[in-house]
Amino acid sequence: MTRNVVISGGGTGIGLAAARAFAADGDRVLLLGRRAEVLERAGVLGALTCAADLGDPRGVRAVERFVAAELGTVDVLIHSAGGAGYREPEAEADGDDPLDAVLHDWTLNFRLNTLTAVLLTEALKDRLADPGGRVLFLGSIAAYRGSGKGAYAAAKAALHPYAHALARELGPRGVTVNVVAPGYVEDTEFFGDAMDEERRARLVAETSTGRAGRPGDVAATLHWLASPAAGHITSQIIQVNGGAERGH
């Protein structure tokens, strides 16, 4: 049966890999993101696209109207939008107080990673298929052990209690809610220009598998969690990091 799959951040990286996996099954995919040209270049066969800022309620309401008109019911909702701010414009200095920069960084990270997911979920949760609906959040290994950006780690960690509460709320409708938490994944735009070979080597060395993650690794996990085989799995955080969270 063809399903309706909505993927935020669907134009690049993990979101795009997930979109291709679902489209290959014949599912109808809607790609969401801020950059219309990136969504259009994604090249996912038969996919719909809708450009919107998901950190802005007005943008989310526009998506809600689009979904109502084009899809009606949402079978799978995947939240892949996010980032640590590496690719965002630098904040303009507004005085000499360093707390201004702290406020900007933390506000930005919660907007990119937490609010985009929460606002979109709240707007679409009444449209989730019941039974059988799936909500899948992209978390991070950083939520377990911190990262170079504490604001990013905290924003991803905030998804955990939200997902647990949502699983309890939607469970009686036959809807499952889970978080997939990747480690270092190559071939994405996440780091912008902030990744060098020394840092990459260190992150790979932390794994037990001896390699970096790939978007397809995470996409395959999302695809399985959305399948009937995973129908009794909910309120879980599934790590996909080659054992790196355990360290060496």
From TrEMBL:
Ketoreductase domain mapped to chain residues: 3-188
Protein's name according to its UniProt entry: SDR family oxidoreductase
Short name of one Pfam family: adh_short_C2
Family according to the record: Belongs to the short-chain dehydrogenases/reductases (SDR) family.
Top-level lineage group: Bacteria
Matches recorded under SMART domains: PKS_KR
